[in-house]
Write a structure and sequence with these properties.
With about 325 residues, the protein is of the alpha/beta class. Helices cover about 50% and strands about 10% of the residues. Strands 1, 2, 3, 4, 7 and 10 form a six-stranded parallel β-sheet that branches. A two-stranded antiparallel sheet has the order 5-6. Helix 4 (about 60-70) links the parallel strand 2 and strand 3.
Length: about 325
């Protein structure tokens, strides 16, 4: 009921012109840069969202938008008008970014930016954050003992508990080697076949797919560490710096041009901390993106840039109202009523 009400209100905002008025006000008086953050790419909602965004915003590649906004924005501080700049980012480099998001980018003639993890590209393995669910789903045992607890995999709550246990140990590992050793051990204890089937589109990209997207000029790329560890958790400062720096070097060698922007894994301050921030600055990046949910102003720290979550389940009318800053108004009115 609540979702239907939100959609009805968003439709009223759009079809009565309130969204267009809010966009005009933002263009005139509140210049900012919006960066949308997606991961996977699928479904009709994404297509309809992109069609709306193409109509009402100036969609740009990430580094081009950041260069223009920060280098030229201060010179143009007094200028107003024109569509707000907007960037579409996809983190991690799932294969459906190639099969679906890239296809949409070409069809709709819209630039997108994908943040890559070179250690996974062309690797037949799986992203570590998918492993808890995958290993438990494909387990060939009825019970397993982990950290002194015997999990009965015939019980749904025990399966969920094991998924969480696997994910937490992988997430907060003190090194990439520790994480991979843990996942390999669990896979063996659960007797998961190495060639077990996987969800279509969830695999990492290949270098051939990256090259095809790069050559199209509709897709640009940024860095997202070599193996996607939580930077704050890494004990060895040498490994931390290597994750950030080597990622850039590998991508620049493969792509043949500088890579200037970076995305922190997971992306909140508690996930990368001061040491992660310093490593990114030392690696020579010009900008770094977080998952802090905010738009970018000229006063923003270039190494702590916020993004707005992209939601594949969200109707485009709700996205339109959200980006225009109107859903917050609706929430406040609803509380008063």
């Amino acid at each position: 009921m609540r979702d239907r009400l939100r959609l009805l209100v968003a439709a009223c905002f759009y079809y009565t012109g309130v969204v267009h008025l809010a966009l005009w006000w933002q263009q005139r008086f509140r210049r900012r840069l919006i960066i949308l953050n997606y991961h996977r790419a699928s479904g009709e909602n994404l297509r309809r969202q992109l069609i709306y965004l193409r109509t009402h915003y100036r969609v740009m590649h990430a580094e081009a938008a950041l260069e223009e906004f920060f280098r030229q924005g201060k010179k143009a501080r007094g200028r107003t008008g024109g569509p707000l700049p907007l960037v579409l980012t996809f983190d991690d480099g799932y294969r459906d970014n190639y099969t679906y998001a890239f296809a949409l980018a070409r069809e709709l003639r819209m630039p997108i930016t994908i943040y890559l993890i070179p250690g996974y590209i062309g690797n037949r393995g799986h992203f570590w954050w998918q492993e808890g669910v995958r290993l438990v789903q494909q387990a060939d045992v009825e019970k397993v003992s982990v950290d002194g607890h015997i999990f009965d995999l015939q019980q749904p709550d025990e399966r969920a508990h094991l998924v969480k246990t696997i994910d937490n140990r992988a997430r907060y590992a003190r090194s990439v080697a520790e994480r991979e050793t843990w996942l390999a051990r669990i896979g063996q204890e659960l007797k998961v076949a190495p060639d077990a089937p996987e969800e279509e589109g969830s695999q990492p990209l290949t270098w051939e797919e990256v090259r095809a997207m790069e050559e199209s000029e509709w897709v640009s790329f940024g860095a997202h560490t070599m193996h996607h560890p939580l930077l704050e958790c890494l004990e060895d400062p040498v490994e931390l710096q290597d994750e950030v720096t080597r990622c850039r070097h590998v991508l620049e060698e493969r792509l043949g041009h500088p890579v200037r922007s970076f995305v922190y894994p997971i992306g909140k301050l508690e996930h990368f901390g001061a040491q992660g921030l310093q490593a990114v600055q030392a690696a020579g990046y010009d900008w770094a993106l977080t998952t802090v949910e905010e738009t970018i102003t000229l006063q923003a720290n270039p190494y702590l840039l916020g993004r707005v979550p992209g939601d594949l389940d969200q109707h485009w009318l709700l996205q339109a109202a959200q980006l225009a800053g109107l859903l917050g108004i609706f929430s406040r009115l609803r509380k008063k009523l």
